[in-house]
Amino acid sequence: MAVQTLDSNNTNQHFGVHLTLEGYGACREKLADMNFILSWLSNVPAEIGMHKIAEPLVIEVGKQNPKDPGGISGFVLIAESHISIHTFPLRCFLTADVYTCQNDLDTKNIKSKFRDAFNLHEIEAQLIIRGLRYPQHNIHNGDSNAPSQHWVAAS
C-alpha cells in the first residue's frame, strides 16, 4: 500500500493521523544501540516538524518468547502525540509508529528518516485516520459546575 502525504487543506474533521511502519533489513548494530536510538528519538521530532515535550524513554527488553527475541523499545512524547519504536536486532527488523493530532503528515519524509537512520532495505507503511467523529466543539464550557454530557455505549 502506497502511503502519501495528506493534503494540509483537507477539510475532513478527524482527530489525527497514525502512521505505522515496519522496517526490514535494518542495521543490526543500530537496532541494538540504546544511545543511538535515544539520540534519534530526541532529534527526529524537530526534523519532521513536531515538538518534543519530554525526553525520550528507551528500554532494553530481553527475549520474551520464540517470536520476540528481544531488542529495544523507546518512545518520545510530542505536543502532537507520540513517536515509538521497537527494535529486533537479531531479525534486523523494527516496528514503529508516528501519531499526531494534526490533519496531515509528511509520510514520505518520515519514511525517509527511518530508512536513512536504520539503513532499511524495505518499509511497510499503513496510514490510519483517527477520530472520524471527533467533536467539533467543546462539550463542556470549562465550568466544573456545569452539567456534564455523558456518552452511553450502544448495546
Describe the structure.
With 155 residues, the chain is α+β, with helices and mostly antiparallel strands. It has a domain at 49-133: S-adenosylmethionine decarboxylase, CATH 3.60.90.10. Helix content is 19%, strand content 30%. It is built from three helices and six strands. The chain has helices at 28-31, 34-47, 107-118, and strands at 16-24, 57-61, 71-78, 81-88, 93-100, 122-130. It has a six-stranded antiparallel β-sheet, covered by helices on one side. Strand 3 (71-78) and strand 4 (81-88) form a beta hairpin. It is elongated, with a radius of gyration of 18 Å.
Q: List the total number of helices.
A: 3
- The Rg value, from CA coordinates, equals 18 Å
CATH class of the domain at 49-133: Alpha Beta
Overall helicity: 10-25%
CATH superfamily of the domain at 49-133: S-adenosylmethionine decarboxylase
Order of helices and strands: EHHEEEEHE
Could you name the CATH topology of the domain at 49-133?
Answer: S-adenosylmethionine decarboxylase
* Coarse morphology: elongated
- Major beta-sheet overview: 6 strands, antiparallel
Summarize this structure as a short list of keywords or feature phrases.
S-adenosylmethionine decarboxylase, 6-stranded antiparallel beta sheet, 30% strand, elongated
List the SSEs and their pairings.
Layout lengths: L15 E9 L3 H4 L2 H14 L9 E5 L9 E8 L2 E8 L4 E8 L6 H12 L3 E9 L25
Antiparallel strand pairs: 1-5, 1-6, 2-3, 3-4, 4-5
